[in-house]
Amino acid sequence: xxxxxxxxxxxxxxxxxxxxxxxxxxxxxxxxxxxxxxxxxxxxxxxxxxxxxxxxxxxxxxxxxxxxxxxxxxxxxxxxxxxxxxxxxxxxxxxxxxxxxxxxxxxxxxxxxxxxxxxxxxxxxxxxxxxxxxxxxxxxxxxxxxxxxxxxxxxxxxxxxxxxxxxxxxxxxxxxxxxxxx
Length: 182
What we know:
Blueprint: H1 2-57, H2 61-71, H3 83-106, H4 108-111, H5 114-149, H6 153-160
């Protein structure tokens, strides 16, 4: 009878450990997927801003060269990227968007160009999608960190090498970014 109880307890512990491991892996994959989605949205924004730079070229070669230097800083963001790398790309994108807006202010004919307007609309759309993807990532990280830190799953997280993940940060100056709307 005692051996049956011991076997049952060991079996329950093994099932519990398997369940916790599966939840940790699932949440870790959700975090990686959310980070990858940010990369996809950022890539679309880069492409739209590159198209805007090409439009600028017909108005001013110097401005085009300046924008292309920023575009040259583009680095892919994928599921293995760190939050710091994502934030660095966001900063580069923000700088490019600010410069494109400044160029458009200097050239009123550019602002009235239909292609410019459509492309800026798509940039704004991608910007909103990145914002939503960042929120999904931070929500996923919250759930992962909760699993890693809360007892008793923290025991299995430590044994299996799962660690807390970093959140994507919002810089104070980002909240003061000028509107990209025309």
